[in-house]
TrEMBL record:
<comment type="pathway">
    <text>Nitrogen metabolism.</text>
</comment>
<dbReference type="InterPro" id="IPR014878">
    <property type="entry name" value="THAP4-like_heme-bd"/>
</dbReference>
<feature type="binding site" description="axial binding residue">
    <location>
        <position position="168"/>
    </location>
    <ligand>
        <name>heme b</name>
    </ligand>
</feature>
<dbReference type="InterPro" id="IPR045165">
    <property type="entry name" value="Nitrobindin"/>
</dbReference>
<keyword id="KW-0413">Isomerase</keyword>
<feature type="short sequence motif" description="GXWXGXG">
    <location>
        <begin position="25"/>
        <end position="31"/>
    </location>
</feature>
<keyword id="KW-0408">Iron</keyword>
<keyword id="KW-0349">Heme</keyword>
<dbReference type="InterPro" id="IPR022939">
    <property type="entry name" value="Nb(III)_bact/plant"/>
</dbReference>
<protein>
    <recommendedName>
        <fullName>Peroxynitrite isomerase</fullName>
        <ecNumber>5.99.-.-</ecNumber>
    </recommendedName>
</protein>
<comment type="function">
    <text>Heme-binding protein able to scavenge peroxynitrite and to protect free L-tyrosine against peroxynitrite-mediated nitration, by acting as a peroxynitrite isomerase that converts peroxynitrite to nitrate. Therefore, this protein likely plays a role in peroxynitrite sensing and in the detoxification of reactive nitrogen and oxygen species (RNS and ROS, respectively). Is able to bind nitric oxide (NO) in vitro, but may act as a sensor of peroxynitrite levels in vivo.</text>
</comment>
<dbReference type="InterPro" id="IPR012674">
    <property type="entry name" value="Calycin"/>
</dbReference>
<keyword id="KW-0479">Metal-binding</keyword>
<comment type="similarity">
    <text>Belongs to the nitrobindin family.</text>
</comment>
<feature type="domain" description="THAP4-like heme-binding">
    <location>
        <begin position="17"/>
        <end position="175"/>
    </location>
</feature>
<dbReference type="Pfam" id="PF08768">
    <property type="entry name" value="THAP4_heme-bd"/>
</dbReference>
Amino acid sequence: MDVTVRPGPVVDLHPSLLPIAFLLGTWRGEGVGGYEGMDAFRYGQEVVFFSTGRPALSYTSHTWWIGEPRDGRSEGSPLATETGFWRVQPGEGDGPPTVEVMLAHPFGISEIYVGDVVGTRVELRSNVVIRTATARRVDRSQRLYGLVEGDLAYAIDMAAEGKPLQSHLSARLQRVSAADRP
Ligand code: HEM
């Protein structure tokens, strides 16, 4: 079969995304997780931020178990994935730009965050969660992302299963590719 490969779209970074251009690329590293009543665990993660030329960065995250086997999981067993879009709006007055993040999770939950970007730090404080009747009860989360010595570091707190807002995850990822498309 003959296949004609036509040129793809021109992919420039939309200028509105300049405040979060430091996120672009593929990042890989390790994190630690835990929660009230849960033993701490370690995980590996790959995160990709890429431009489609439209005014939102596309985002994907994959994680996997690392360390001693537990609860049927061993090194490399798949853990959570999430996917979404990050966009930027001008801040009010002299305020910092606003970041809006839409995320979908494969376990019956979608969420939207709104926050600020200050330099190379994104603080996602305001969040709404919607969930199906069968999803675990997650009420609220907040996230902080930032560059630390060239690495992408983040911390995620959540209020779930009736428990107060507390740390669930934190990680430090190294940039493995600067490409703005995977
Ligand atoms: C880096 C991504 C993530 C990893 C590696 C991860 C990993 C884990 C692990 C290993 C557990 C232990 C229980 C189980 O095996 O299911 C867990 C529990 C849980 N996770 Fe995550 N998770 C991630 C992201 C998230 C996100 C984004 C949410 C919410 C939107 C979430 C909500 C929960 C909830 C509600 C529990 C149960 C807590 C409880 O029973 O008290 N997780 N997670």
